[in-house]
């Protein structure tokens, strides 16, 4: 694999677990960080550390410049029209909550509908449940089709679901549980025709696939730095400028006000109005380095690499006796992860066993309990891939899984 | 013995693969369900108390990992004939073993769970069924059976 040389850039990958070389296959939860990102973080604290926006001294100006450069970089990264369309958040969850609280408080009325899908992460479900309950609105779901969710979203059902009552359609670009890649541009176009705004959960796509908000035609889009080679604690909410500029802030305080009297305050325009308090400057700067790293690598090449690994894994794992593969069938398009259930071994036992072989997997409901219930499962085991993973590691995984089946098998 | 082999001892694997007292006993009239929110697993314990307050029938349902299934299975074999205070004492014994990894000498089958001590994330799996059983003993009996 041409990507093998990258491993040298990731300090955390060079360790053994239970005496075995680490095989890190939990990238959908969080990816590792390349040296350049770690260096950017350290460099910021060692050289520029200061508060932004309110200082006139040299360090403060450097910190402000670096923070705003990260914002401009993020705008370029997703092809937003304007850096003011980029709000720094803690991550995907916070970005979605911002829309669910601010936008819904202002615009969602009794009888309205929020449309989402049956494959959403709890982060793109629970905030809408709360917003809908507050407004007296209802939630509707685009169904997931197929016994193993292999057909993805039921797009035939979409037109009848997109009624005039639907004010907002929130969906994930890539399912963290199934590996399904949703046709995000088509979903946005159909929502727009029906008069609904769109919120795209790009947690699993931003660091893996080329992403262009103007080509997608979405109104809001949220993602997390830590799933794209960046640090934890930083994420991005994109919103079209006209929406963000008129949205009431969900948190208030310093940094977001234009003027304050004892009686009241006026807000700055976006993005400041949505970033109350001292922001996460250092992690924004490190995320800038991560975006540079990703584009130096090339996102189309990265996507091809991850898809190829997932395709190989789907093919190899499907041959394991008693293994139920979820999501797309082998040979069909699949994002960089595989999720499966073994007849005789519970996901937590699988993860504990694989860990003994140095393999980091994730087992459980993947913050997707309703979907698990629909599929008749309490959980699955998931292997998810990134730039530094190799075909050899998938062979290691398949070998380990065969031993697991033998160990826990009833036969 | 590695931590791993110590976790999945033969007794645990045996009960995980062939759980005893699975299902609702026909005479059971009390039940409670425990949930493990971290993994979505659940365990429902069904039981009946005789006139002396002793468990005369007990069984469990639910889906869980090898540790939680074995724990539920071994628990049902341990609790038959016990009163609520005796069940509390047995559970306290298990919790000690999980906390220390060192069972007292010649302890009963619950000693097999000593290996869970090295896997803190799995301790909840070993206690799930016990919480449900103790809860079930406190519930009002269903009037029918
Ligand atoms: C599809 C999806 N949405 C949302 C999230 C939440 O991301 P975060 O925890 O970084 O806010 C995740 C991460 O687990 C995810 O996979």
Can I get a quick summary?
The complex is a heterodimer of chains A (411) and B (145). Chain A contains 13 helices and 19 strands.
Account of the 3D structure:
The complex is a heterodimer of chains A (411) and B (145). Chain A has 411 residues and is of the alpha/beta class. The longest helix of chain A is centred in the first third of the chain and has 20 residues, at 58-77. In chain A, helix 2 crosses helix 9 (281-297), helix 3 (92-107) runs parallel beside helix 4 and helix 10 (299-318) packs parallel to helix 13 (391-408). Chain A has helices at residues 35-48, 58-77, 92-107, 126-135, 158-161, 184-193, 213-216, 241-246, 281-297, 299-318, 347-356, 369-374, 391-408, and strands spanning 16-17, 20-21, 23-24, 86-89, 113-117, 138-142, 144-145, 152-153, 166-172, 197-201, 220-224, 235-239, 257-260, 265-267, 323-325, 337-342, 359-360, 362-364, 380-384. Chain A has 13 helices and 19 strands. In chain A, the strands form 6 sheets. Chain A has a 7-stranded mixed sheet, sandwiched between helices. The two termini of chain A are 38 Å apart. Chain B is of the alpha+beta class and 145 residues long. Chain B has a single domain, classed as Sufe protein. Chain: A (Alpha-Beta Complex), CATH 3.90.1010.10. Helices cover 41% and strands 17% of the residues of chain B. Chain B has helices spanning 3-7, 10-17, 66-79, 84-100, 123-138; strands at residues 30-36, 41-49, 55-63. Chain B has a 3-stranded antiparallel sheet. The mean pLDDT of chain B is 93. The complex binds pyridoxal-5'-phosphate (PLP). Pyridoxal-5'-phosphate is lined by residues 28, 91-93, 121, 123-124, 172, 176, 201, 203-204, 224, 367 of chain A.
């Amino acid at each position: 694999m041409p990507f093998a040389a990258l491993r040298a850039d990731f300090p955390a990958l060079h360790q053994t677990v239970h005496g075995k070389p680490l095989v890190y296959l939990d990238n959908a939860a969080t990816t590792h960080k390349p040296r350049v990102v770690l260096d950017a973080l350290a460099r910021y604290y060692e050289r520029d550390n200061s508060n932004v926006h309110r200082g006139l001294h040299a360090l403060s100006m450097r910190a402000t410049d670096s923070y705003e450069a990260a914002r401009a970089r993020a705008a370029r990264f997703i092809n937003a029209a304007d850096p003011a369309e980029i709000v720094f958040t803690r991550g995907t969850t916070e970005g979605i909550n911002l829309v669910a609280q601010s936008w819904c408080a202002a615009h969602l009325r009794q009888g309205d509908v929020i449309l989402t899908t049956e494959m959403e992460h709890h982060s793109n479900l629970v905030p809408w449940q709360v917003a809908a309950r507050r407004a007296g609105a209802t939630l509707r779901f685009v169904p997931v089709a197929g016994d193993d969710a292999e057909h993805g979203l039921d797009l035939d059902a979409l037109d009848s679901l997109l009624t005039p009552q639907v004010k907002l359609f929130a969906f994930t670009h890539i399912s963290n549980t199934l590996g399904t890649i949703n046709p995000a541009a088509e979903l946005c176009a159909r929502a727009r025709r029906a008069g609904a705004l769109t919120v795209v959960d790009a947690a699993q796509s931003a660091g893996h696939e080329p992403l262009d908000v103007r080509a997608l035609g979405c109104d809001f889009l949220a993602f997390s730095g830590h799933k794209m080679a960046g640090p934890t604690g930083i994420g991005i909410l994109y919103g079209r400028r006209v929406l963000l500029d008129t949205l009431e802030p969900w948190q208030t305080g310093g940094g977001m006000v234009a003027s304050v009297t004892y009686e009241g305050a006026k807000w700055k325009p976006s993005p400041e109005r949505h970033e109350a308090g001292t922001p996460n400057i250092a992690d924004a700067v490190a995320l800038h380095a991560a975006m540079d790293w990703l584009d130096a690598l090339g996102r189309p090449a990265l996507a091809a690499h991850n898809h190829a690994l997932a395709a190989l894994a789907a093919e190899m794992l499907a041959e394991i006796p008693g293994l139920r593969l979820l999501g797309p069938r082998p040979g069909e398009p699949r994002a960089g992860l595989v999720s499966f259930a073994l007849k005789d071994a519970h996901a937590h036992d699988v993860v504990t066993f694989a860990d003994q072989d140095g393999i980091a997997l994730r087992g459980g409901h993947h913050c997707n309990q309703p979907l698990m219930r629909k599929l008749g499962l309490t959980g699955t085991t998931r292997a998810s891939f990134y730039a530094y993973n190799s075909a050899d590691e998938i062979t290691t995984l398949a070998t380990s899984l065969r031993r697991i089946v033998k160990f826990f098998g009833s036969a | 013995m590695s931590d791993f082999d110590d976790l999945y001892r033969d007794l645990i694997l045996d009960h995980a693969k062939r759980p005893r007292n699975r299902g609702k006993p026909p005479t059971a009239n009390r039940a409670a369900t425990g949930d493990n929110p971290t993994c979505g697993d659940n365990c429902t314990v069904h039981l009946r108390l005789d006139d002396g307050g002793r468990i005369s029938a007990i069984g469990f349902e639910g889906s869980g990992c090898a540790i939680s299934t074995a724990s539920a299975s071994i628990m049902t074999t341990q609790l038959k004939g016990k009163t609520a205070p005796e069940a509390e004492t047995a559970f306290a014994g298990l919790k000690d073993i999980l906390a220390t990894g060192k069972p007292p000498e010649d302890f009963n089958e619950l000693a097999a769970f000593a290996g869970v001590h090295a896997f803190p994330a799995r301790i909840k799996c070993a206690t799930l069924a016990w919480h449900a059983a103790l809860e079930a003993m406190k519930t009002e009996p269903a009037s029918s059976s």
